[in-house]
Amino acid sequence: MYKIAIKDLDTLFSKIAAEQELILPLKKAGQYNFGVYEEGADTEGILVNKTVKSAKDAFFPQFETLYNVRKTITPADELANGEEASGTKIRTKLEVSMEDLKDKDFVVFGMRACDVKAVDVLDKVFLSDPVDNYYKARRDHGIIVALACHEPEESCFCTVFGIDPADPKADVATWVVGEDLYWKPLTDKGTALTEGVKDLFADADEQAIEEEKANIKAIMDKLPNTKLSLEGWGAGKTDEKFGSDVWAKLYNPCLGCGTCTFVCPTCQCYDIKDYTTKDGIERYRCWDSCMYSDFTLMAGGQNRTTQLQRFRQRFMHKLVYFPDRYDGMYSCVGCGRCVDKCPQSLNIVKVIKAFGKENKGGAV
Predict the structure, then answer these.
(1) Based on the domain organization, do 197 and 105 belong to the same domain?
(2) Phi/psi class of residue 256: alpha, beta or left (left: φ > 0; alpha: ψ in -120 to 50)?
(3) Cα separation of 319 and 220, whole Å?
(4) Would strands 172-177 and 180-185 be described as parallel, antiparallel, or unpaired?
(5) In 3-state terms, the chain is what percent helix, strand and coil (to 5)?
(6) What domain range is 83 assigned to?
(7) How is residue 47 annotated by DSSP?
(8) Is residue 187 assigned to a domain?
(9) 147-187 pLDDT, tens per residue?
(10) Strand boundaries in the chain, DSSP class E
(11) In terms of domains, do 325 and 313 share one?
(12) What is the pTM of this model?
């Protein structure tokens, strides 16, 4: 266990960034989001409990090129004699080049326990057969330094899903106690990172950490959503939940804006598109949302034609379909971002509570 003064964190960031790319919460336009560290960056966001978006982009970017197709045309006067004699007028050649996979280590600093768990959810999707090589390369080279939640926010409910905000599981776990940041490597990756910056740290014992963990737990116990019951959800609940009348009572205010999906650390829907460049085609993928009317739209139409169906799909996937497929794991980590950002307050907490009232015979 080590510690470093919070006032010296920029020195730590500079040393890490000198060796590898460093991604951490940065303040831009009055908001806090993960971005690539540069000298002089505003890093006060490291102490902010919740960024607008998670660090999901570090492993599953909002936009990424997959490959390029280049077309070259050789005119008749440049053809070899053999081709010209055969009557060929021009020669067209297509060359496909894959985008390079991530091949250098990088550090994501300041992820909270909920967002670290969200990466486990993404692993289930992208590292299952067939493996997504773009994602795998980033996971192989990514080093996660997690930060315990000193003061969990009112919208947080990660403990409902078995996540401990006081004890994040990552390559390195850190805690803010007083004027110091405590640092504990947990994996081989974390130990290797620590060795490179060890000269900046002082030795520390874990007693202060135990007190901090107790304080965090005390705060969590007082938050409004930490006693949320998942009774009636999980694997094997499709028939029970899918046809419920509760969906019709809940969905109507939904705007289909997709805000919930874009701030969610576990959403993994994406679209693949091609666009024409000066000399060929570039294929890329970008985040998409099951809340959009044109999501998975094909020539034959779309299998979810109403907002009610799309609304139901999002929450059934989080709370039933994903647990069905992945041994009971929920596709929600209780970060509370949808609670904070949905303009109509149609978040996952409201859905869970609405079904809980139905189960108890109350009004939805």
Answers:
(1) yes
(2) left
(3) 22
(4) antiparallel
(5) 40, 25, 40
(6) 66-98
(7) G
(8) yes
(9) 999 999 999 999 999 999 999 999 999 999 999 999 999 99
(10) 2-5, 21-28, 31-36, 63-74, 91-98, 106-111, 142-147, 172-177, 180-185, 202-203, 270-277, 280-287
(11) yes
(12) 0.89
